[in-house]
Amino acid sequence: MSPSSRAPTLPGTLKPLLEMQMGTGIVSAHYQGQERECEIFALETARGPHMVKVCRQSIPNLFFAEVQDLAQQRQAGRDNVPEVIAFADAPYAGLGAAGQAGPAFLLLRSVLDNKSVDFLKHKEDDEA
After folding, report:
1. Average pLDDT in the chain
2. CA 127 from chain center: how many Å?
3. Which run of H or E residues covers position 94?
4. Domain 3-127 listed as CATH 1.10.443.10
5. pLDDT tens per residue, range 54-87
6. How far apart are the first and last CA of the chain?
């Protein structure tokens, strides 16, 4: 496999920031594909699945509108809306070399599927 055909990897300089925001370590990160100019990674953690969108291009307010839209969906009571953990639009103070801008990112807590939610509710009812 040539270097240009490899799947993108989660930027190493971003990993410590994501772990701090989630309050847990990343066990593994799996490339899921691309959406617009951003790479999407599924993150496995001890606190459950998360997802991060990473954009290495400098696009002002890249994720701001998406965060606002997700908040409106949650307020409207829509099911299966992921929870926003953290986001940063580029450019911002870098995590690597001095003067280096960090990549824009949007960190989301994945939503449990209905079976998981039903199981948790049943467990809570039994404990009550």
Report:
1. 80
2. 32
3. none
4. no
5. 998 777 788 998 999 999 999 999 988 999 999 9
6. 56
